[in-house]
Write a structure and sequence with these properties.
By secondary structure, the chain is of the alpha/beta class. The protein contains 8 helices and 11 strands. InterPro entries: CheY-like_superfamily (IPR011006), OmpR/PhoB-type_DNA-bd (IPR001867), Sig_transdc_resp-reg_C-effctor (IPR016032), Sig_transdc_resp-reg_receiver (IPR001789), WalR-like (IPR039420), WH-like_DNA-bd_sf (IPR036388).
């Protein structure tokens, strides 16, 4: 999953990027409102962490413009602890959740994961991917995968790829979409890497788990009724 962190405080932005990267997010950063507005309108983020007190363009204005332009990605706003009016204004402007500063990084990560799950219609962080390949369990919050009860070791990119397909389960996901959601903006993107990762996931979790739809992309089978 790819997220945008909009924060002008360099130290806090670095802490946010580190915590989210550890939770296996691809993270972009905007230090001011104008860059945030541009990135949010041109890049396909799965979620945004948005500070309201920004230089050049304030966070509420950025959020309102995103929503007016039809950008529907989940947005978690950061507010001052005592500024309850900011929370109300942010929610009315289209925010999905908020955190008051100072906050625990673990709570921010958990809230962001929950927002992304809900945006894809998932109620739990644990996703069952059962089929002829066996019983595969993916725990987004814990960052773990098991097959028939045994832990399976995945690289960070393998986990990100599997998690994104699981959130889009039953739908075809193109290589372009995967590339846009798995890598940060300045990452050297190579579609051949996706093919290699898919091959490794099949070897670890079952050859039939990830379906190749010729000329279109990849798909995880829809959940059983």
């Amino acid at each position: 999953m790819r997220v945008l962190v909009v924060e002008d405080n360099a130290a806090l932005a670095a802490q946010l990027r580190a915590a989210l990267a550890e939770a296996r997010f691809a993270v972009d950063h905007a230090p001011d409102g104008e860059e945030a507005l541009f990135l949010g309108e041109t890049e396909p983020y799965d979620a945004v962490v948005l500070d309201l007190g920004l230089p050049r363009l304030d966070g509420l204005s950025v959020l309102r413009r995103w929503r007016a332009a039809g950008r529907a990605m989940p947005v978690l706003i950061l507010t001052a602890r005592a500024a309850w009016t900011e929370k109300v204004e942010g929610l009315n402007a289209g925010a999905d959740d908020y955190l008051a500063k100072p906050f625990a990084m673990g709570e921010l990560v958990a809230r962001l994961q929950a927002l992304i799950r809900r945006s894809h219609g998932l109620a739990s962080a644990a996703i069952a991917l059962d089929g002829p390949w066996g019983q595969v369990r993916l725990d987004i919050a814990a960052g773990s995968v098991t097959r028939d009860g045994a832990p399976v070791r995945l690289t960070a990119l393998e986990f990100k790829l599997l998690a994104y397909l699981a959130h889009r389960r039953g739908g075809i996901v193109s290589k372009t979409e995967l590339t846009e959601h798995l890598y940060e903006q300045d990452f050297d993107r190579d579609s051949n890497t996706l093919e290699v990762m898919v091959g490794r996931l099949r070897r670890k979790l079952g050859e039939r788990l990830i379906e190749t739809v010729r000329g279109q992309g990849y798909r995880l089978p829809a959940a059983a009724a």
